[in-house]
Task: structure prediction
Amino acid sequence: MFKTAPDELLGLNVNTLINDNRSFEEVIEQGGSSSFAVDGVPYEAKISRIYGSDRDFEGYIVSLKEAKPLSSMGASRGKAGDVATVTFEDILGKSLQISRAKSLAARFAKSNENILLAGESGTGKELFAQAIHNKSCPNGPFMSINCAAIPPRLIESELFGYESGSFTGAERGGKPGKIELSDGGTLFLDEIGDMPLELQATLLRVLENKRVIRVGGKSYKQIDFRLVAATNQNLPQLVEQHQFREDLLYRISVLTVDLPPLRERLGDALYFARYFLNECQIKTGNGLVRLSDEAAKLIETYTWPGNVRQLKHAIYSAYYTCEDGTISVEDFPSYIVNAAKPLSDEGVEAPLPQAAPAPQNESSSSFKVQSAPASAQSAESGEPSPAAKAPLPTLSLKELESIAINEAILQADGNIATAAAILDISKATLYRKLKESQ
Result:
């Protein structure tokens, strides 16, 4: 933002970087939010105080985010539809898995083809849908409908609209459907696997010719829209069970993005935990809250079936529950603690990523993940086991290569070119080795 090298920023007075006559103290007294200009570019800002371990005031956190014009937020307040505010830069995570998904979705957004987002609940499908919309047609409307949240008898009128008097309770003058309102923009169908089978044939025809007719209507209307569908179900399996049309599956999945669950995103669980702790501190203005080693290990080893959404709720709960400024395992919701106990009792938990202590108020905290196998540590003491002290030939060359590649990619924050430079190999060689390991 400041177009200045990090080492040159240290020691500078912040007033030389942002244009505002008020002090941070004044901004906080007025609500803690403001807007600043950096080189003429407007930024939204949130400001909160920082307190040390003894509750001593130490300074401020200033979080800047570029102010987006209404035209880049999909449907504005004056138009029908949802407001799409998320871009690919807003989707957080440092793992290679989420970086790949973001890169693939950003490439797909440049096309006009239908896109299917497949992933478990809580993996961020709606965030990706908004990011795709803002990448492809930010000035158009963003219309979304959750096929699982609307009674089956109402989905048809929600999608296609209706003419006046077409059924009891219909509004005078009729009402356009979500497809009609998405003209020039994006139609997001969430949980499409729950769409009634009888409506799937109608949707298929609309996708084929981009023409829609309202319920009770007599004429078709040509609509130009981009479909983004999402599901947490196995659609091919639903096809085999005759609960989803095979031809519709082919039509909506021309381009497919598989969103990885949190348990497969190496290092992201702890990253998000620190990010949400930062959120809590900014909201409350309270002192610094840290994770104990045991709590950090729990975060890394728990499977998080609810993914990022579940982790956020758990961190918020633990933040408000802890009393001494350090979150322990017991501060997490009981269902998480109880589910984690069998792993702890059996001594099969995954190793804790080795990380240098990072301030909880830095949402961009980075940490190094230890990629050694779980057997390399003693279950009781956490110290290296005798097996870990054995000579390296206990691992095959292929295993050592895989560990080196994973470590380099993590150090490079998912940047393949940087990782290749760390490994002293070409990008083509690294891509080939990654493909061989899949």
User: Anything to note?
Assistant: The two ends are 37 Å apart (CA to CA). Residues 268-284 form the longest helix (17 residues).
